[in-house]
# Entry
Amino acid sequence: MSNNVQNQPKQWNSRFGYIMVAAGAAIGLGNIWKFPYLAYRGGGGIFLLVYILIIAVMAHPMVEMETAIGRHGKSDTVSVYEKINKKWGFVGWMANICTLMINMFYVVVGGWVLKYAAQFIVSGDFGNDTAMFYNNYIAQPVEPIIWTFILMAFCSFLLLFGITEIVEKVTKVIMPALFIMLIVCGVYACFSTEGAIEGLKYYLLPEPKNFSIKVFADAATQVLFSVGIGWGIFTTLGANVPDKNNLKSDAILVSICDTMAAILAGFVVIPSAYGAGVDLQAGPRLLFEVMAGIFSRVPGGRFIGAFFFIAVAFAVISSLFTFFEISMKTFEVKLNMGRKKAVAVVSLIIFIGSILVSLNFGVMKSLVLPWPHMSGIQWYGLFDWFDCFTAYVLLPAGCLFTCMFVAKVWKFDAYEKELTANGRDGKLKPYDKFLVKYVVPAFMLIIILNVFGVIQ
# Structure
C-alpha cells in the first residue's frame, strides 16, 4: 500500500461528531476564562456587540478557508498548504509553533481548573482569602505540575487512538453537557446575588462612548484565540471532513456554538462578580480568585462552584484534543514518526514547556523576556510573553498569510470549487472575496500594530 493511501485520514463518523469536536476546539479557556474579563474591561455591551460583528466578518470566512484547505489537502497542517504550493508549507509550520507555545501555558491553566474543581468537590474550602489561596497555589513548585500532568496524560492517551475515534465519542457527550452546565450556572448567577441584574445590563446593553481602538483590537484578538483561527485547528480537522459535508453551513454552526459559549460564560461571571461587588478587572485571575470567592459565600455555592469548574474542565479538555492533534498529526505524517511516537514526542515538548511556565509563577519568577513596544522595552514572564507572541503576532500573521494564500496562490476559482463542492452548496460572492482580500487582513494589521503600541 502506498504512503499516500496509508496517510489518508479517517473521516468523521458523523457530522454531529465533527461539529462537536470543531466547536470543542473553539470553545475553551478563551471563551470562559478570558472573554468575561475582557468584556467587562472593554465596556460590557459595546465589547459584546463588536465581538459578534467580528465573528461574522472575520471568524466565519476564516473557518471556511481553513476547513476548505484542510479538506482539499487531506493531511497535516503543513502538507495541506504544500499540496497546493510547495513554497507555502511555512504557514503550517508557523501554526505548529504557535500551537505548541499556546499549549505550554494553556495546560498550566487547565491544571488550575482541575485543582479548583477537585477543591470544590472535596471541601469547597479556599480559606478566608481566595486571592491568597490562588497566589499561594500557583507559586507552588510541585502540585500545579502534577495537575497539569494528569490533564495532559488523559488527553494524550485518548489521542493515541486518533481524533475520529474515542475523542469524537467523548466530545459528543461533554460538549452538550458543557452548554447545559453553563446555562444552569448562568441562571443561578443572575438570581443569586443582589445587583446581578445591573451587571447583566452592563454586559448586554452597548454604550457607544466605551468604544476605542483598544476595545476593537482586544475583541478581534479574543476572536482569534476563542474561535481558534490562524493556528491550524480547522486545516487539521478539515482533513477528516467528507466531501458530502457543506463547509459553509458547518462553519456557521461552529461560529455560532463558539459565540454562544462565550456569551454564556459572560452570563455566569459578570453578573456574579458585579452583584458581589468584587473586582471585575482582575484579569486572568478572575475565574479562580473572584469566582471561587463568590461561590464560597452564596447558598449552595459549593455545588454550583463544582458544577461550574467541571464545565470549564470540559471546555479545556475538548480544546486540548485538537490543540494537541495539530502537532501530533504533523509529526506523525510530515516527519514520518508514526502515531505513538508523535504523541509521545509532542506531549513531552509541551510538558517540558509547561513546567517552565508553571515554575515561572514561583521559584523562577525572576525569569522575564523583553517585548518591544513604542513606549519602550517591556518585560514579561513566560506566561504573558507566550500569550502576547501567539495571540497578538502569530495568530493574526497566520490569518494574514491564509488570506494571501487563498486570494493570490490557490485563487478564488479553485477555492470556490472546494468550498462549495463544485457549486452544490452555493457560490462565492463578491462580498466573500472582499472580506478575504481586504477586511480580514486589515483587522490583522490592527491587532499586530496595537500590541507593539504603534496604534492605541
The beta strands are 369-371, 378-380.
